[in-house]
Specification:
Elements: E1 3-4, H1 16-29, H2 32-35, E2 42-44, E3 48-51, H3 56-66, E4 70-73, H4 81-93, E5 96-100, H5 110-122, E6 127-130, H6 137-149, H7 174-188, H8 193-199, H9 203-209, H10 215-224
Parallel strand pairs: 3-6, 4-5, 4-6
Antiparallel strand pairs: 1-5, 2-3
Helix pairs in contact: 1-4, 3-4, 5-6
């Protein structure tokens, strides 16, 4: 199941040295120094926001400005200091932190799609969702949010876009391919998205069919931008 509870904190944030090491890991190994300059933050209708991995200072800022009640961490539990600091900051501010894994280089599973639908119906708003860079998993999550929560047609949603740093030429284009496959099936024989996911969608077959059309694009996204 993509919905998980936070793991125990790995860094001892009660000690100055442990907190310092968590910050250093966040800034250097997890590339937080880049996100401190540009957090890829955007507002969606209905009290939802999307961004890259927020620092404690950014979480406090968004909580103060927008009254954030829930944060959806699309990265899931991970060993980086940014995660431990996020858990600690959400606990401090009374924000519910939900770990809900999505993946940027795999077709979403049926369970992930249904889980996203249920999640957006039950959380408290205003809410914030994020991945590492705010481009791919946040884009898919925002697409699901707009469709399930706001009722927008999938062919009119543009959350997976170069505007947010999403690239279709790399392996991350598998997310676009997933949505395009539904739209193609729907054009041939109209069917709503959830019914398609539960009855026609073959995750394994479509994954095998997908071809990341540019090795250079994959190299750029994976090795240069260091996306997850």
């Amino acid at each position: 199941c993509p919905l998980r509870t936070p793991r125990p904190v790995a860094y001892d944030l009660t000690q100055p040295y442990g907190r310092f090491m968590a910050y250093m890991n966040m800034q250097l190994e997890d590339h937080g120094i880049v996100r401190s300059i540009y957090n890829n933050f955007y507002a969606l209708p209905g009290g939802m926001y999307r961004c890259s991995q927020p620092s404690p200072a950014q979480i406090r800022k968004y909580h103060r400005l927008y009254g954030i009640k829930t944060i959806i961490n699309l990265r899931g539990e991970n060993p980086h200091g940014s995660y431990d600091l996020e858990v600690d900051t959400c606990r401090e501010l009374g924000i519910e932190l939900i770990n809900f894994n999505l993946y940027s280089r795999d077709m979403p599973s049926v369970e992930e799609v249904l889980g996203a639908r249920d999640l957006f119906e039950r959380i408290a708003y205003p809410a914030l969702m994020h991945c590492k860079s705010g481009a791919d998993r946040a884009g898919l999550g925002a697409t699901f949010y707009r469709h399930f929560r706001l009722g927008e047609p999938l062919d009119q949603i543009r959350e997976l876009s170069p505007k947010y740093g999403h690239f279709t030429i790399a392996r991350t284009g598998i997310l676009d391919f997933f949505l395009a496959c539904y739209q193609a099936d729907n054009a041939r024989a109209p069917i709503d998205f959830l019914t398609w996911v539960q009855t026609r969608y073959d995750q394994k077959a479509l994954t095998e069919k997908f071809d990341a059309r540019s090795r250079l694009g994959t190299w750029f996204v994976d090795k240069v931008l260091r996306r997850e």
